[in-house]
């Protein structure tokens, strides 16, 4: 299993952490998959950065300039500096074809690629953009659920977009892997339950039974990715565009209630999930 990589992005992305803008941390405008009743336990501010190209296009007046923009949470550097560094690396992972190591470098590289392209005989009549927003939909004493939402346009018929989840262990200061959530030897059982729910969802949406062969799963065999979020009552998986369906079908969310997989969860998973009841 591999993390989702946005298909049409080929440029660097990690952005300059600047321009503090403190605000309430309820993340109310995040994805619908977020627990709306969650209460933050770790304070942070939101920061925003934007870098624009100075090169004009034929449609600059109506569509704006080419830009690189990011909005993200900034945690206390003293106690949670490692979390900030992790988040920066997480942002950079979305755009893998890059030599950039900092957000500033990535922003400059994106703008430079556009500027150089506009000097070619065949160039873009439209401005490009990269827009990334990072939310904290899950905030408990033991772990954070992070959600990176990104969309971009670098030419062509349409842009690209996606959502990437991360679950961060605050004590061990690292990402939580799926094999820490599901007990050893139980992954096949999880996959079977997930496939049943997936097919039921598709039947409701399409009005008829749809075989697994209708999707983009390798070897026509259902599989889970590791783009997941530990919610209050369920384990949420998310497949991005092109991952298992065509662009026109958008993203696919797959929610697996804990009540259906309680016997598959590790003690650590149960401890993490129990934090929601203490908020």
Automatic annotation (TrEMBL):
Organism superkingdom: Bacteria
Domain DUF3298: 181-258
Keywords noted in UniProt: Signal
Boundaries of every Deacetylase PdaC domain copy: 68-160
InterPro entries: DUF3298 (IPR021729), PdaC (IPR025303), PdaC/RsiV-like_sf (IPR037126)
Signal peptide (residue range): 1-18
Pfam families: DUF3298, PdaC
Stated name of the protein: DUF3298 domain-containing protein
């Amino acid at each position: 299993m591999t993390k989702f990589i946005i298909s049409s992005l080929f440029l660097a992305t990690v952005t300059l952490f600047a321009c503090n803008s403190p605000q309430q941390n309820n993340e109310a405008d995040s994805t619908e998959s977020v627990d709306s009743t969650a209460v933050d336990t770790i304070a942070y501010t939101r920061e925003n950065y934007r870098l624009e190209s100075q090169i004009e296009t034929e449609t600059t007046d109506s569509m704006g300039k080419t830009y690189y923009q990011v909005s993200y949470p900034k945690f206390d550097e003293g106690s949670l500096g490692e979390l900030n560094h992790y988040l920066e690396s997480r942002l950079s992972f979305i755009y893998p074809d890059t030599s950039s190591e900092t957000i500033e470098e990535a922003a400059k590289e994106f703008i430079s690629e556009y500027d150089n392209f506009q000097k070619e005989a065949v160039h873009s009549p439209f401005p490009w953009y990269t827009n990334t927003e990072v939310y904290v939909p899950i905030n408990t004493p033991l772990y954070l659920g992070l959600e990176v939402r990104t969309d971009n346009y670098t030419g062509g018929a349409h842009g690209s977009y996606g959502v990437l989840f991360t679950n961060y262990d605050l004590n061990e200061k690292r990402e939580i892997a799926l094999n820490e959530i599901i007990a050893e030897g139980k992954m096949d059982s999880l996959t079977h339950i997930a496939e049943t729910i997936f097919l039921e969802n598709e039947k409701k949406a399409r009005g008829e039974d749809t075989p697994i062969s209708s999707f983009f799963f390798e070897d026509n065999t259902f599989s889970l990715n590791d783009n997941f979020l530990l919610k209050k009552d369920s384990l949420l998986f998310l497949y991005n565009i092109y991952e298992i369906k065509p662009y026109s079908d958008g993203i696919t969310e797959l929610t697996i209630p804990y009540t259906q997989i309680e016997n598959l969860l590790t003690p650590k998973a149960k401890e993490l999930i129990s934090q929601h009841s203490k908020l």
